[in-house]
């Protein structure tokens, strides 16, 4: 028993030393970026570290948010994803409405609805299920030491490179269709209320689904 405690304390000490070493390296990189490059690079480095820490501690994975309710009946990640969509919807609507009120154009890329969406969603979902996670989950697991995710990362890089190379052809293929913009059809308040209402319904359904799956 005493030997086991010594091993645990020794392992914890090594983890703290490794963590402290990485923290020191991150600080040195921040200082170098701040001194020799525009400050935006240093701030982006801090933002990336913060996002990585939040993703790792929250265990957020978009693939798991869709997979877990179906396979395990758990909807905690799903509800977290829905809440994030609610918050981003409010922020995005406020930003876009402000730009329109100032006579500016909408930001972002709007693509038309069509056959390409379900096909792309199916291919993406299939790849995410096989690889075991989405992009954020893959990066998080690599940071935790999962070596298999390195192969997934290589696939991400190759696929993204090929997609960027062919992006112009795809946008030209679907660009002739009419773009559906809900605020233009309903106006901004109605469109925002409709989206938030649907998200709230999904949240309540996810909460009920978990209770239903684990009912005694």
UniProtKB/TrEMBL annotation:
Entry keyword set: Membrane, Transmembrane, Transmembrane helix
- Please give the Pfam families that the UniProt record associates with this protein: Sulf_transp
Q: Which domain of life is it from?
A: Bacteria
Transmembrane portions of the chain: 20-37, 43-65, 77-95, 115-138, 150-171, 191-209
In Swiss-Prot or TrEMBL terms, this protein is called Membrane protein YedE/YeeE
Organism source for this protein? Halanaerobacter jeridensis
């Amino acid at each position: 028993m005493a030997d086991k405690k010594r091993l645990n304390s020794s392992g914890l000490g090594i983890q703290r030393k490794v963590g402290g070493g990485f923290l020191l390296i991150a600080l040195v990189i921040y200082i170098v970026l701040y001194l020799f490059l525009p400050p935006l690079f240093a701030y982006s480095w801090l933002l990336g570290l913060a996002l990585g820490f939040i993703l790792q501690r929250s265990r957020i994975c978009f693939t798991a948010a869709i997979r877990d309710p179906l396979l395990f009946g758990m909807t905690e990640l799903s509800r977290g994803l829905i809440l994030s969509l609610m918050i981003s919807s409010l922020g995005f609507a406020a930003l876009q409405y402000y730009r329109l009120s100032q006579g500016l154009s909408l930001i972002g890329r709007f693509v038309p609805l069509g056959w390409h969406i379900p096909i792309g969603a199916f291919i993406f979902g299939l790849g995410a299920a096989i690889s075991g996670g989405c992009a954020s989950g893959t990066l998080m697991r690599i940071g935790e030491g999962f070596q298999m995710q390195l192969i997934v990362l290589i696939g991400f890089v190759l696929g993204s490179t090929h997609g960027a190379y062919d992006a112009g052809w795809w946008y030209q293929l679907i660009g002739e269709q009419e773009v559906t913009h809900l605020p233009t059809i309903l106006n901004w308040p109605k469109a925002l209320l409709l989206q938030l209402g649907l998200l709230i319904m999904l949240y309540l359904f996810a909460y009920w689904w978990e209770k239903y799956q684990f009912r005694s």
